[in-house]
Amino acid sequence: MSSGTLIVDRDTNARAVYTVDPSTGLPIGSGTSSSQVQGNVAHDSVDAGNPVKIGGYASGTAPAAVAAGDRVNGWYTLRGAGMMVMTDAGGSLTSSMYQGIADAYNGANPGVVTANFGLVLNRRTGTWDRQTGSIVPVVGSAVTGLLVKASGGSFFSGAMTAGATAGFFILYNAAAIPGSGAALTAAQILAVVPVAANGYATIGEGAIADGCDTGIVLLFSTSTTTYTVPANAALHMRGRGF
User: What's this model's pTM, rounded to 2 decimal places?
Assistant: First the structure.
């Protein structure tokens, strides 16, 4: 490598010249006083001056956190692609940015969906739930009540075939099947469909789900004010919800 050169002009003023490695043509040195063009503050140091660095930190995992106000390297993948993490309106990285992919996220913004499924807004509970490609139905035979889900969720459809007794097919917002003879709370009755003896009835069957904040129960009753078990149970009952 060549050494530094000092040039003296006619007025005997000394002028320093950059030292250059003749094999590479690049300035020599790597310290803060070298002739290389570089930032004047290292990564994870208190920021000062005007940033110059355009390189970054390559890693498959996030770099360690630093103190507020420190200068940091850019974060890149091992293939050189720039990493970007969304923050909230205040610039903070919070759990809400990731909970958009989970069930029952009740924030104002579901965040950025990073998985391969979408979200649907449960209007009754006000939460964002995963949109599934298929729903396994709950099925019962010779029953008068069917528990589709024991907690809040979205009800899509139900169907039943009655026996020799006519009655009502009811969608009830509850976490359990009521006891025989129990009063039914009117506000928790989300749908009622009359069913003829040996008849067939459906509830739902639409593209938009009914939100049930307590649970999803299907009932076959001869009354809409109390859960009155028919003399003949439903031959078949099924419900779809999550």
Answer: 0.53
